[in-house]
Amino acid sequence: MSVKDIAQDTINAAVWSACDTFRGTVDPSIYKDYVLTMLFLKYVSDVWQDHYDNYKAEYGEHPELIEEMLKNERFVLPARANFRALYEQRHAPGNGERIDKALHAIEEANIGKLRDVFQDISFNSTKLGDEQQKNDILRHLLEDFAKPELNLRPSRVGTLDIIGNAYEFLIKNFASTSGKKAGEFYTPPEVSALMAQLMDPHAGDEISDPTCGSGSLLLKVGRLIRERSGSRKYALYGQEAIGSTWALAKMNMFLHGEDNHRIEWGDTIRNPKLLDSEASLKHFDIVVANPPFSLEKWGHEGADTDKFSRFRRGVPPRTKGDYAFILHMVETMKPRTGRMAVVVPHGVLFRGSAEGRLRKQLIDENLLDIVIGLPEKLFYGTGIPAAILVFRKKKADEKVLFIDASRGYEDGKNQNFLREKEDLQLILDTVKARANVDKYAYLASPAEIAENDYNLNIPRYVDTFEEEEEIDLMAVRKERLELKAELARLEEQMAGYLKELGYE
């Protein structure tokens, strides 16, 4: 194991251990925001101190030079807003108020990057108990993050990836313990990796996620570009409706060093905020999303008068918002390079009425490219199987590739997992080949889909039926007679033993 691996494992274990301060006292859905925010505060404090010490060693006799060099940092850390100052006062009353003031000072000093990020989190909240309990909890939290394992100075832990990975590790673990709400802020990493690779991103791409949660899916697409080309020439765009989750996304981007991003806070359907200079919907090379499944109150009341004409093909059902997100995403694809991948419940593939008409329209326009059926229990907060739909503005042909990947996975205690080689690579190889694979994939023509009344239910196209081996009834009869004879022999032998023992 390399030093980097040891550092990552050590940091992950230490930040997860810090959650013990809250367990049994505060619900995980609440304390996740406190732990993640403290990790952010500790990291920026350690980076600032590390750089300050380096500059002091070099320009010790010239404090004004140190100040000038610090102005070139990615962020500004006000003097009394650093973690060390808060830690030194941890035994005094008012920990919650001091931490809140520090966060707001950091926000004000970095308004362009961190505006409103901390407005939904208060360490002085009564959610943490009365004043005494709150002060004790926060003292323990400060002490947890002051441990040597959580010395996050770049000179010790190296790249941003380690800190970003620790943040993602925490988010993933919170998602696995947060029940139904988990899907609101996190997409499983292997599903994000699959969607990123399906989109085949390149340097120069503009990438959007209109329901970005904590930003993990956007980060996966950006990371794939860096791994392939070493380039950071791309831009990430996202919108998130829940304020606390939007704040997680902003901090997540910061901790991954993704400065070329724009993450907006608001309801994508009712109030889309990713607009261009002419106040029209901005278009993107890649659009990816894992929207809330079958959202009941999605904004039906304003769909008929939508000023962006997103529902010109028809209005989705009042109590199921799946196609509202799909139509929004379709409208934001660039005319030539636009492609999108969206996670949907299987009902999207076959439900009738308004959804059936919308499905027909999208297929007739030759926008739908691939339908991938995923295994059950992949997503946090729901056990139902889902599918990934891939749309393209410029397709290779008029056909739709159906893939039944529902049987390829590794069992987990609470969640199932897609394995990298056996499952993910098989899907990607099948997409690349774009051909029929017995009991796994089928390339359907428009005529075949029309013949099925535009029903996209995967079993209509991919036959996974396995013929059962023929039963030789005569052999079964012979075996049965042999067993009966053996039973009679044993019964007779048992009767003899009982007689010898005097029971008969």
Automatic annotation (TrEMBL):
Q: Give any Pfam family that matches.
A: HsdM_N
DNA methylase adenine-specific domain: residues covered: 161-469
Q: Which N-terminal stretch is annotated as signal sequence? A: none
- Can the keyword Methyltransferase be found in this entry's annotation? yes
Which UniProt keyword terms apply here?
Answer: Coiled coil, Methyltransferase, Restriction system, S-adenosyl-L-methionine, Transferase
Matches recorded under NCBIfam families: hsdM
Protein name per Swiss-Prot or TrEMBL: site-specific DNA-methyltransferase (adenine-specific)
What residue stretches are annotated with the N6 adenine-specific DNA methyltransferase N-terminal domain?
Answer: 12-145
Q: What class of enzyme is it?
A: transferase
Q: Which domain of life is it from?
A: Bacteria
User: Organism, per UniProt?
Assistant: Rhodanobacter terrae
Molecular function terms from GO: site-specific DNA-methyltransferase (adenine-specific) activity
Tell me the organism's taxonomic lineage. Answer: Bacteria, Pseudomonadati, Pseudomonadota, Gammaproteobacteria, Lysobacterales
What family, per the record? Belongs to the N(4)/N(6)-methyltransferase family.
Quote the InterPro entries the UniProt record gives: D12N6_MeTrfase_N, DNA_Adenine_Mtase, DNA_methylase_A-5, DNA_methylase_N6_adenine_CS, Restrct_endonuc_T1M, SAM-dependent_MTases_sf, T1MK-like_N_sf
Coiled-coil stretches, from where to where?
A: 466-500
Catalysis performed (reactions): a 2'-deoxyadenosine in DNA + S-adenosyl-L-methionine = an N(6)-methyl-2'-deoxyadenosine in DNA + S-adenosyl-L-homocysteine + H(+)
Q: What EC number(s) does the entry state?
A: 2.1.1.72
